[in-house]
Design goal:
Helix 1 packs across helix 2 and helix 2 packs across helix 3. The protein contains 11 helices and 12 strands. It has 3 domains: about 60 residues, Winged helix-like DNA-binding domain superfamily/Winged helix DNA-binding domain (Arc Repressor Mutant, subunit A), CATH 1.10.10.10; about 100 residues, Periplasmic binding protein-like II (D-Maltodextrin-Binding Protein, domain 2, 3-Layer(aba) Sandwich); about 100 residues, 3-Layer(aba) Sandwich (D-Maltodextrin-Binding Protein, domain 2). Helix 7 links the parallel strand 8 and strand 9. It has about 325 residues and is of the alpha/beta class. It has a 5-stranded mixed beta sheet with strand order 4-3-5-12-6, with helices on both faces. It has a 5-stranded mixed beta sheet with strand order 9-8-10-7-11, sandwiched between helices. About 40% of the residues lie in helices and about 20% in strands.
């Protein structure tokens, strides 16, 4: 039975903060470690919060907890309250004429060189703003944006999420990245992924979004690529190709310096799944963005190579 509501007590800010951490992390113990408090303190605050709401907010599972329907409503309220507090602090800074703040960015590792180039110019323009960058898979990036754990997400070919809004997107098809002197260099028409079935290739790990797209193209075509290198490191893929060891399959923005310096060649692929992939700049739906985040968002949308459509080849 849910507890009877306690209308005399407003919702406690600390209890809401603790509860939001538990919902995000999936367990009281994990939230306690993240917040540097005792698990008993979090349990006590959540019990008081349930008494105030007159509803059970968490469902206990063998390996953690999940929010009940009432819990999801309370978590949404807690997130809005947290966003409003951040917006208030930001507005007060603006009244004092300060261009300061910390912007949190979650992105795929392939975006990192492009992102750092864009941030270099932004840092000169806005020296008071700092950045916290976390790398993640496509699904992890979208989840972090939806949960309010990051301000800006840069994701490659994400799936739709009700709590995430794409601000800018651009076609960034997966290309075959060829080493110097490859026999297909200068090929004038797109080729199928199957064309590389007997060549040495560099592939990302199975849980990576690009590898999953390639896996679907392999399944559709009834063939398997030969993975001479499997690595989550995009730098390893770049080195693999420039050293003449084989072929990689990446969006052009990941290897832009190598393409510019003619150390590799990008060949378009005819497989529809690989040709339609897109890069997305994401924020959470209905969130009032702090000025620092809003300014950086526009800056990245205008300057990131990944957010400008890759040219048609040839």
């Amino acid at each position: 039975m849910p507890p009877a509501p306690d209308a005399a007590r407003p919702l406690n800010d600390r209890a809401l903060r603790y509860f939001l951490a538990v919902v995000r992390l999936g367990s009281i113990r994990a939230a306690a470690e993240a917040l540097h408090v005792a698990p008993s303190a979090i349990s006590r605050q959540i019990a008081e919060l349930e008494a105030s709401c007159g509803a059970l907010l968490l469902e206990r599972l063998p390996r953690g907890v999940v929010a009940t329907e009432a819990g999801r409503l309370v978590a949404e309220h807690a997130q809005r309250q947290q966003d409003e507090a951040t917006a208030l602090t930001d507005r007060l800074r603006q009244l004092r004429g300060l261009q300061q703040g910390i912007v949190q960015i979650c992105c795929g590792a392939g975006f990192l060189p492009d992102l750092m180039n864009a941030l270099a110019g932004f840092a000169r323009e806005f020296p008071g703003i700092s950045y916290r960058i976390v790398l993640g898979t496509t699904d992890a990036i979208t989840a972090a944006v939806a949960a309010g754990e990051t301000d800006i997400g840069l994701a490659y070919n994400p799936t739709a999420h009700a709590d995430v809004r794409t601000v800018v997107k651009a076609h960034q098809p997966i290309r075959a990245i060829l080493p110097p002197g490859h026999e297909m260099t200068g090929h004038r028409k797109p080729v199928s992924l199957r064309s590389f079935a007997y060549e040495a290739t560099a592939l990302l790990p199975p849980d990576h979004g690009i590898r999953q797209l390639i896996g679907r193209a392999e399944a559709n075509g009834g063939f398997r690529l030969i993975a001479r290198l499997e690595s989550a490191s995009f730098e390893a893929h770049r080195q693999f190709v420039t050293a003449g060891m084989g072929v990689a399959f990446l969006p052009e923005f990941v290897v832009f310096p190598e393409l510019r310096d003619k150390r590799v060649t990008a060949l378009p692929l005819s497989d529809p799944l690989l040709a339609e992939a897109m890069a997305h700049l994401q924020v959470r739906v209905a969130r009032r963005l702090p000025a620092a985040t809003e300014t950086l968002l526009h800056w990245l949308g205008e300057r990131l190579l990944a957010l400008h459509p890759a040219p048609s080849l040839p």
